[in-house]
């Protein structure tokens, strides 16, 4: 028997309060019927004895304290799913908004997900190729991993997200076993249209599931968007054995909606006004990445977040860093130099890449190339600091080689453009060419056998049009200066 409650005790913003409600459950869906017969959906967000607080999805305009009829539906919010969701565009609450009609659902799934037994998890191995050298070589994305992108205001994280969606693939993909679930939270209409148009023009829309929550949509919908996206991903991964990459932006918008929602409930705020349960709430999203023994598919996450004032100690990036397995950091200085994507190499890392690269996964020299590029570029920063003190004329020939390497590394390796898609072989070969600019005895992070096989100084000199002899270079500069 379904009970219907007539009247409301209180209306506060998007929240309504009912008294004398029995057997209610947290997160249970509620249907509210207005005086004119129209209905709205809500969700129970707080229970105090027989007093419940309901968040109304469509807002509380025109609701009446006396005449509103409320019915508990007996289940949490569910997302109807089938293989038809591929190529479709949904609102943040999972309703089709592309004009193609409703989904013919095979089943409905709880958007909060099912708990994944830790014992049933498979350790993430093998990589997802993004076609972006700075990611594939230095911060490799592993299937089943959660690897966030830390960005800032004005940085091209939206373009980077589109490029990853366009280019991402798995090594053994035949075109049918890989999908991307893309969710945008709190974006403007032009940004949402940019995402949709870019995927359609790139011809990848048939493997993408899109969830769009606009900035003028209700904040409750924004808190549902990543959960709907992850539910769709889990369905494709665990029911249809697909490798699914989930990209959602912007996590900071999600957290701000959570802060506003928490404040409206009168909860005690934590750091910078965010709720005290922000860590566990973010963990409930991020920890839905992984691989299960019972399925051949995987769920991999790339959450994108903008750091307010580029502050990496802000609660959102700070807590995200504790939960996830590394990060990709974008740099405003590289962006101002015209380098795209402006990935800041040194603060970026992928903690799982060591077990998903090398022979049998990428190439046997991958680890050596990655370690040496990191070490060489870190030395470049030391040489730059030294140069600011003593001047470039006082540098040793070896340090000048490092400065040359740093310039070439930024211009040819990091900077690759929006439409350039490099294979892992092309990326590693380019890495070797750049390392060959340096003297052979400086490459101390590489096994000697591997070094003998790949080091080719003559090729580097020819490719980058370098002057081999420093004395000749200085003499030529003197002639040019008269």
From TrEMBL:
The lineage of its organism: Bacteria, Bacillati, Bacillota, Erysipelotrichia, Erysipelotrichales. Residues 131-350 form the ATPase F1/V1/A1 complex alpha/beta subunit nucleotide-binding domain. Residues 355-455 form the ATP synthase A/B type C-terminal domain. The keyword Transport applies. Residues 9-64 form the ATPase F1/V1/A1 complex alpha/beta subunit N-terminal domain. Belongs to the ATPase alpha/beta chains family. It comes from the Bacteria. NCBIfam families: PRK04196.1. This is V-type ATP synthase beta chain. The gene is atpB. Signal peptide: none annotated. Pfam families: ATP-synt_ab, ATP-synt_ab_N, ATP-synt_VA_C. The keyword Flavoprotein does not apply.
């Amino acid at each position: 028997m379904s009970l219907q409650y007539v009247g409301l005790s209180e209306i506060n913003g998007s929240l309504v309060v009912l008294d004398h409600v029995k057997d209610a459950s947290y997160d249970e869906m509620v249907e509210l019927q207005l005086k004119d017969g129209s209905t709205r959906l809500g969700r129970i967000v707080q229970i105090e004895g027989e007093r419940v607080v309901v968040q109304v999805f469509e807002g509380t305009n025109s609701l009446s304290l006396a005449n509103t009829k409320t019915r508990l539906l007996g289940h949490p919010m569910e997302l109807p799913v089938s293989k038809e969701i591929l190529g479709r565009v949904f609102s943040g609450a999972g309703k089709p908004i592309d004009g193609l009609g409703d989904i013919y659902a095979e089943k409905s799934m709880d958007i909060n997900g099912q708990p994944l037994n830790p014992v049933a998890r498979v350790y993430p191995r093998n990589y997802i190729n993004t076609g972006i050298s700075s990611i594939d070589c230095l911060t490799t994305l592993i299937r089943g991993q959660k690897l966030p992108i830390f960005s800032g205001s004005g940085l091209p994280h939206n373009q980077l997200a589109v490029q990853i969606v366009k280019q991402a693939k798995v090594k053994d993909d035949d075109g049918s076993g890989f999908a991307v679930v893309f969710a945008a939270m709190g974006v403007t209409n032009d940004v949402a249209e940019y995402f949709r148009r870019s995927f359609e023009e790139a011809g990848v829309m048939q493997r993408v599931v899109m969830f769009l929550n606009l900035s003028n949509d209700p904040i409750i919908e924004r808190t549902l968007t990543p959960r709907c996206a992850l539910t769709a991903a889990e369905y494709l991964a665990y029911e249809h054995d697909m490798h699914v990459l989930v990209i959602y932006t912007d996590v900071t918008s999600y957290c701000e909606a959570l802060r506003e929602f928490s404040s409206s409930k009168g909860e005690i705020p934590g750091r910078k006004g965010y709720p005290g349960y922000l860590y566990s709430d973010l963990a409930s999203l991020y920890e839905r990445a992984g691989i299960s023994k019972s399925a051949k598919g995987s769920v991999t996450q790339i959450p994108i977040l903008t750091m307010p004032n580029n502050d990496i100690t802000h609660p959102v990036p700070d807590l995200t860093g504790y939960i996830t397995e590394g990060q990709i950091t974008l740099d405003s200085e590289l962006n101002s130099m015209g380098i795209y994507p402006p990935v800041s190499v040194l603060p970026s890392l992928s903690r799982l890449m060591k077990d998903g690269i090398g022979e049998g996964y990428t190439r046997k020299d991958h680890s050596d190339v990655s370690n040496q590029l990191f070490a060489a570029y870190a030395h470049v920063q030391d040489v730059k600091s030294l140069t600011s003190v003593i001047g470039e004329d006082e540098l040793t020939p070896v340090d000048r080689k490092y400065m040359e390497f740093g310039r070439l590394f930024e211009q040819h390796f990091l900077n690759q453009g929006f439409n350039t898609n490099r294979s892992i072989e092309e990326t590693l070969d380019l890495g070797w060419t750049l390392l060959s600019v340096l003297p052979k005895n400086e490459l101390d992070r590489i096994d000697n056998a591997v070094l003998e096989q790949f080091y080719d100084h003559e090729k580097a000199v020819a490719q980058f049009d370098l002057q081999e002899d420093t004395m000749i270079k200085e003499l030529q500069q003197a002639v040019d200066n008269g």
